[in-house]
Design a protein that fits this description.
CATH superfamily of the largest domain: Glycogen Phosphorylase B
CATH class of the largest domain: Alpha Beta
Strand content: 15-25%
Distance between the termini: 10 Å
Radius of gyration: 22 Å
Strand order of the largest sheet: 3-2-1-4-5-6-7
Number of strands: 13
Number of domains: 2
Order of helices and strands: EHEHEHEHEEHEHEHEHEHEHEHEHHH
CATH topology of the largest domain: Rossmann fold
Largest sheet: 7 strands, parallel
Length: about 350
């Protein structure tokens, strides 16, 4: 039997959508009859149509839309889908309601924790009883969601988001001269849109515990890195002349590729896309001991894991890695291996197809 599936997702041509787009084409290539409902302006539409994938260019624009509900319901009835796969809150709310009373399996996606059973709005989205399976992108998210799914915790399953090393083949690292950094410096990168849970202040505070002779420079990349709080911490740091705020960059891959070390000092995190990208680029990582970060980085094998919110521990890890080129090379090689073996697009497609087969049988 050929499985027919409708994927509703806000896929665009931006980097965060690449795994989702690859999942659509991967499932299609493996014989799943995939239709996609995506925004009408998505640059992915021509590529999908060229592959023979039917596109419905009309993704829901509101969390609750009778127009979208009726449209999805008509599609389910006319196409007789076995599965509808919903990737975001707007798709989940409208798609779950559209599926009421119809013989279709509903699969939803969850990429973060931070949802709780006592929030009534959660039962309209990811905790909706109409959902048959909830795909979580990490063991951490699955564990959290199983606690919230009071009556059917088993419907939360884990499938890692996948990446492909080939996406990064054409990335050319920025030269130290372009960033204004001495050639001999050891570059440490951190990418974040600054919020409390990203832990950036602890990374800045870690510079107070570094040997001033250590030739490290820190690059802070992302929106709001120049917040007043961060600027005060930088001003008081003995490394203040070696902490560089780059802000938002469209060439973030090229910047990270120029780094010797990548750090994710988050206080809470699921499966960090920035860490995965750094690992694909062959940059060894230091991460906090929380969430999906410990699934990505195996301590002392593919990087270093430090206690969250501990500036001293971050400084010790920086010192250890910055002082040992061979260790950085070994961590980088193992990081690439983990991306190939565990966090690949091929694995993501394989496990999703297996779930589809389980759902309809």
């Amino acid at each position: 039997m050929t499985i027919r599936a409708l994927i509703i997702c806000s896929i665009t041509d931006r980097a965060p959508s690449k795994p989702d787009a690859e999942l659509v084409t991967g499932l299609h290539d493996q014989g799943i009859e995939v239709d996609v409902m995506i925004p009408s302006g998505s640059a992915c539409i021509p590529a999908f149509r060229k592959k023979g994938i039917r596109v419905i260019p009309d993704h829901p624009t509101k969390k609750f839309s009778l127009k979208s509900i009726f449209q999805i319901r008509r599609e389910i009835r006319s196409r007789k889908y076995h599965i509808i796969h919903l990737f975001n809150t707007k798709a989940i709310v409208n798609g779950s309601l559209a599926a009421l009373g119809l013989p279709v399996k509903v699969i939803a996606y969850r990429g973060a924790a931070g949802m709780y059973w006592y929030d009534p709005t959660a039962w309209l989205s990811h905790l909706n009883p109409r959902i048959d399976y909830l795909i979580c992108n990490s063991l951490y998210v699955r564990q959290h969601m199983r606690k919230q799914l009071l009556f059917r915790p088993g419907k939360a399953v884990m499938i890692h988001k996948g990446m492909d090393l080939s996406w990064f083949n054409q990335v050319i690292p920025l030269s130290r001269q372009e960033i204004g950094i001495p050639e001999h410096a050891i570059l440490i990168g951190c990418v974040a849109n600054v919020r409390r849970i990203k832990g950036v202040p602890f990374l800045i505070r870690a510079t107070h515990h570094l040997d001033p002779e250590l030739p490290v420079h820190l690059l802070l990349i992302g929106s709001d890195m120049d917040s007043a709080a961060n600027l005060r911490l930088i001003e008081s740091s003995p490394f203040r002349d070696r902490i560089h705020i780059l802000g938002f960059r469209s060439d973030v891959y090229e910047v990270i590729a120029a780094c010797d070390i990548y750090i994710q000092p988050s206080l809470s995190e699921s499966l960090s896309r920035s860490v995965m990208e750094a690992m694909c680029l062959g940059i060894p990582c230091i991460v906090s001991d929380i969430g999906g970060l410990v699934e990505l980085v195996e301590h002392e094998k593919s990087g270093l894991v430090v206690k969250r919110g501990n500036a001293t521990a971050i400084a010790q890890a920086i010192t250890k890695m910055a002082s040992n080129l061979e260790l950085r090379k070994a961590f980088a090689r193992e990081g690439i291996n983990r991306m190939k073996q565990i966090f690949s697009v091929a694995n993501m497609v394989k496990h999703t197809r297996k779930l589809y087969e389980e759902a309809v049988n």
